[in-house]
């Protein structure tokens, strides 16, 4: 069950991040490294995490011209990350190029090819902000599924999407298309995320991985919080059988 929980180390201090990881290492096998940590920790923090026996989800949400994103993807191969992400809104050409270039680079160098995931719509965005701030007239779920289909058609392995769209994405893209779900909030957590779900809700809906950050990072007892999340994942898995 630990493989389904991705611990999000969204802190700016590499030493603090590693301390938290050591504290929670028995409850997760994959660690998310985003911009706050990578900007100060760089390649070294990736190596430090790998030295602790954990896989890395490099969450830098690449979004640029195809060649630039492909080059960034190849550097992710050099870092031996388990997965990284790109913005699906970068377009099919960008996504296809990074898939092709990363695959070719991995074969040429004999290095592991990471999973490539597409970010659809951020979990901080709801229907109101979709219309008012982004100018989209379609529903959030319709837009997410459209982006997921483009991601699959471009060769990506899956998407980063909220739990609200899991079932629709699986229906459109197939069960093997991976869905990594952020915005996971136990019942007692309230913050700036809008399209959220509990760990159990996400797993029952079909999430392949759930990303949990602040509920663990800010907990008074991180170990107890991790234990509660793992238990909820286990119960949700049993209910799906």
In short:
This protein is α/β, with parallel strands linked by helices and 241 residues long.
What does this structure look like?
With 241 residues, this protein is of the alpha/beta class. It has one domain (2-118, 182-240): Alpha-Beta Barrel (TIM Barrel). Helix content is 49%, strand content 16%. It has helices at 14-24, 35-51, 66-78, 92-109, 127-132, 140-153, 166-173, 199-205, 214-217, 222-240, and strands spanning 5-8, 30-34, 55-62, 83-87, 115-119, 158-160, 178-181, 209-212. An eight-stranded parallel β-barrel has the order 1-2-3-4-5-6-7-8, surrounded by five helices. Helix 3 (66-78) runs parallel beside helix 4 and helix 6 runs parallel beside helix 7 (166-173). The two termini are 14 Å apart.
Describe the structure using short key phrases.
about 240 residues, alpha/beta, TIM Barrel, about 50% helix, about 15% strand
CATH superfamily placement: Aldolase class I
Please give the CATH class.
Answer: Alpha Beta
CATH fold topology? TIM Barrel
Write the H/E string, N to C: EHEHEHEHEHHEHEHEHH
Layout: helices, strands, pairs:
Layout: E1 5-8, H1 14-24, E2 30-34, H2 35-51, E3 55-62, H3 66-78, E4 83-87, H4 92-109, E5 115-119, H5 127-132, H6 140-153, E6 158-160, H7 166-173, E7 178-181, H8 199-205, E8 209-212, H9 214-217, H10 222-240
Helix pairs in contact: 1-2, 3-4, 6-7, 8-10
């Amino acid at each position: 069950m630990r493989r389904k929980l991705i611990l999000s180390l969204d802190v700016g201090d590499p030493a603090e991040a590693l301390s938290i990881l050591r504290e929670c290492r028995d409850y997760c096998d994959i660690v998310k490294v985003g911009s706050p940590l990578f900007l100060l920790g760089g390649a070294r923090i990736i190596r430090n995490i790998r030295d602790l026996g954990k896989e890395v989800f490099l969450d830098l949400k690449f979004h640029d011209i195809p060649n630039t994103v492909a080059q960034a993807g190849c550097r992710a191969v050099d870092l031996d990350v388990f997965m990284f992400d790109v913005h699906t809104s970068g377009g099919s050409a960008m996504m296809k190029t990074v898939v092709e270039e990363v695959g070719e680079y991995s074969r040429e160098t004999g290095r592991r090819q990471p999973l490539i995931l597409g970010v659809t719509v951020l979990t901080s965005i709801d229907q109101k902000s979709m219309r008012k701030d982004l100018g989209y007239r379609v529903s959030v779920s319709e837009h997410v599924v459209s982006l997921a289909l483009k991601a699959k058609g471009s060769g990506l392995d899956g998407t980063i999407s909220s739990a609200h769209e899991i079932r629709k994405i699986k229906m459109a893209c197939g069960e093997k298309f991976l869905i990594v779900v952020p915005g996971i909030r136990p019942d007692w957590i309230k913050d700036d995320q809008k399209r959220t779900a509990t760990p159990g809700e996400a797993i029952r809906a079909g999430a392949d991985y759930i990303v949990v950050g602040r509920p663990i990072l800010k907990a008074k007892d991180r170990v107890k919080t991790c234990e509660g999340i793992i238990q909820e994942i286990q119960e949700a898995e049993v209910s799906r059988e």
